[in-house]
Structure of Zinc-dependent alcohol dehydrogenase family protein:
Amino acid sequence: MAANGSLMHAIVYHGPGRKAWKEVPKPVIEEDTDAVVKVDSVTICGTDLHILKGDVAAVTDGRILGHEAVGTVEQVGSGVKNVRPGDRVLVSCITACGSCRFCREGSYGQCIGGGGWILGHRIDGTQAEYVRVPFADTSTYPVPEGVTDEEVLMLADIGPTGYEVGVLNGRVSPGDVVAVVGAGPVGLSAIMGAKLFSPSHVVAIDLADARREAAKQFGADLTIDPAREDAVEVLRGLTDGLGADVAIEAVGVAATFELCAALVRPGGRVANVGVHGGPASLDLENLWIRNVTITTGLVDTYSTPTLLKLLATHQVDLARFVTHRFPMDDFLEAYDTFSRAADTGALKVVVSS
């Protein structure tokens, strides 16, 4: 559906459990560093489901959801230097002012100059026919020749999230045994990223049959259904009783974080990637004496240029993430399919104009 004049359609949040595909004003340039991008392809993130559960209080009634898109630049502000109308761009889930102390360190997710995770969170997002992108020069990336919208869309969020917050924060190294708890899209991204570092074993742990099967396709050497097997005992059996070198939490609930803490060996690393809506127990009385390192993090997207190179040279296969496709007018059906992933087998859904 094409936008009509100054109006467009978008997914609008109306409080926990409530959203609508409705007509809203089309965005306009507000700052001279903005771009307005026509959304060609967009996806839904597990974080959007957390928002709809009420886990993210900063998202208020009337917010357009979404923080991932590939699109065509329609208009730019007078201060934009590197992005021009007609350019095909990846809209990153993280917006970077480029000049604050955190951006200068590459910690774009912590930007204090007006960026960070703002799309679909503190300002209107990408699940719409058009989106306003602040700091366009530092918050969009040219799409490489020879790759599809669907492939590059996977680098808006899940690609760098699994890679940075899981693999790099967890310091995955050659020969490591890596346990990934949760084989949803971000967990699968972590599996794919871990394989770049030649671990001895990647073990995926998930309750859903379809997601364990997907984990095998993405490179997992072993999968575990924690309802049928004791994951801790399986990992100890692989490691002479020690446990995993790295445990990556990719769900965002207390039980999976606590499982990761139980899976890891003395001196090992727990990398929490999942978005948590409540507290989890931290058994410091057991962890401190075992020298366990725990990392957390919002993605910074500093790895996006590297991942774009790997995509352009076909060293990573991101097209396999996409399991379902919808036109814009079926956005609510796309949400239903993605939210019932255990039944539908959805990994990533793509909604295109």
Residues 7-157+301-352 form a domain with the Quinone Oxidoreductase; Chain A, domain 1 fold (CATH 3.90.180.10). The longest helix spans residues 158-168.
